[in-house]
Structures are given as C-alpha cells and as structure tokens.
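Filed under: proteins

Residues; backbone shape codes:
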Amino acid sequence: MNIPAPRLALYVHWPFCQAKCPYCDFNSHVAAEIDHARFASAYRRELEHMAKAYAAGRYLDSIFFGGGTPSLMPAWLVEGIIANADRLFGLAPDVEITAEANPTSSEAETFAGFRAAGVNRLSLGVQSLRDEALIFLGREHSAQEALAAFRVARQTFDRLSIDMIYAREDQQLADWTEELQMALDLGLDHMSLYQLTIEPGTGFHTRARRGDILTADDGLAADMYTETDRLMCAAGLPAYEISNHARPGSECRHNMIYWQAEDWIGIGPGSYSRISSGTNRTGIATRRSPAGWLDAVDADGHGVETLIDDKPGDAVAERLMMGLRLSDGIDIQTLESTYGKRSTLFDMAAYDQLVAAGLLTADPDRLCVTKDGRLLLNRVISALLA
C-alpha cells in the first residue's frame, strides 16, 4: 500500500504567563524567575532527540510557538530554536512560523525582535474589545491596549490573526455582533472565534461549581454561532474550521496539520507529538512540570514521559474527530486508500441517518458536516464511530 508521507510541523511550548486566566486549562505557570539559558539548552537537546528518534530526514512545513505566553520569550531564544530546527530538519521554502502573543504594551515591544528572529505570522490574544469583558476574562490589557498592539503587529507582520471569546456572562446577541463588527473593521485575513467553555481545573470551573452562571445558555450560544457564521461569510472570511475563519489562502497551515491528522513534534513542558509509521500512529507526551521537564532533559536529553501506540481504529477515529471540524471535511477515497473500505471505517447506517437528518452532506466523495451539523458535531462523530 503506497501511503503518501504526511506533512511535519513543530510545536514549541512556552509554559509561562504573567497571570493565569480563569478560563484557561493549558499548561501555563506563573514564575518569579526563569532561567532562559537553561531553557534554551533544554529545547535544543529535546529537539535533537525528537529529530533523531522520530523524524530523521524530514523537513518542517510549520513551526508554532504556543503557551503559556510565548511573547514573553526573549527574541534570541526564539531565534535559536528556529535555527536549530533548520539545522536538524530543514525548513520548507514557504515555512509558516507562528507565535502567540498578548497585547500588553510591554509585549508589543517584542514584535520587531520576533520578526527579526524569523517569526512570520502572529496570533494576537485580544479576546475582547470590551474593557468589562477583559476584566471578567482576567486579561491584563485594556481594549485600547489591544488596538494599539494590533497596530504595531500590523506594521510588523504580513500575516496576523486575532483570537476572541464570545457567549460570555450576560452577553447578548446584539452585543456580540457589534463587537464582532468592530473586529471585522480591522481588516484581518484570519480570526479565531471561540465560545467560552468551562474547563475542569480552571478558576471559572470553581465558580461554576458554586453556581455562578458564566456562559450564555445553549440556545443563545447557538444563535451567536449562527450569526457569527453569517457575518464572517459576508465579510469574505468563511469558517474553514469550527472556530476559525479566513480569506481563502490565509488559513493557519500549522493547525491544518492537526486537523488533517498529519504529523507534528512537540517540545517543551507538557507538549504532545503525533507521528505516523505507515498506518500506525504514536502519541508522545512530555512532563508537564517546567522544573520536572528541565531535570528530565538534563538527565536524559528529553522530557518524554509517555509513549502510546494507537490501537486498531484509533487513527481512523482521529481522522474523523479532527477532519470533521473542517468545512471541507474528509476525502473519503483518501481515507479508504489508507485504511480500507468505508463500510469498515464508520457506521454506514448512522451515516445514512445523519445525511437524511441534514447533519452530513450527501456528497459520496467527502465526509462533511453541514452548518446544522456543526452545532451537533460531537453527536455526529459519536454516531459515526458507534
């Protein structure tokens, strides 16, 4: 069986923030002091280990600095990681190198340094253009600071995206559409728009367990999602994924590698990798504690804590769970050429019922949810995998 090689990406996790946001369940920590030189050495050693063990001879299509708050990294550390990635893998001629950033004035001052280091795409965590919402979300910037940082980023990067969070406490549909229009007026080519969810282990989760109502009810949230889709389509930024919108050609290549279940290597505390070998897939996770990860890298050359080889069917489940998030869905013929006939890959009776219900398209060549199906995506996936 001739299986085309998947693309390869690199994810770099920076685990530190100035403060922990109450909605965030990412592996992020607040630290009074950070030994940047020790982290630089550890990133280099773990990257060398990953390249040798899992991806020898492959080049990188994208690099993504996530966190935490990567814009708190010194630019020389970012530059060193990119240089080591180029040395160990080689970079595609049009490689996409993204960094997440917060729009405080101090971090905006680092944008030029990041651009000089090789970053060519910035994802700016605006989250809201309302001061009261930013306070509620625990953000350290104001709406005016967000707009000022946006202007600096716009002058520095050709490719720029912002994140925003909606379906918040007491937010009404008209409030959100007005705020979204303000964001659209900035003239971006990419926006990530997320409904607020309450994740275990977060400050909001603690408040929700006490009875606080922090999110819009399901009906209002669905209306907000539908109106968001309408406004974004009208502005020429349709959803290419459940929560991500772009002008054609401006999609985030790194995240597309995730959603299309291709390969990526993760380095840093609490990072995750997915690597293919034929039809088999391996998941690799590093230690979450920054101190524990540093000690492990010092001792072993890497911080890998767990290795999990997929069981039969896991790779197909990943393709469905990730690929159905995309508006274009999944090419069924490609799926069949890799894993076998569709009748063995998902429940055909459930497929027929979902098509009849208007939740999947009737296209025999693509497995794709409809706009109504997006609102019930977890139910659609569960039915197909039953």
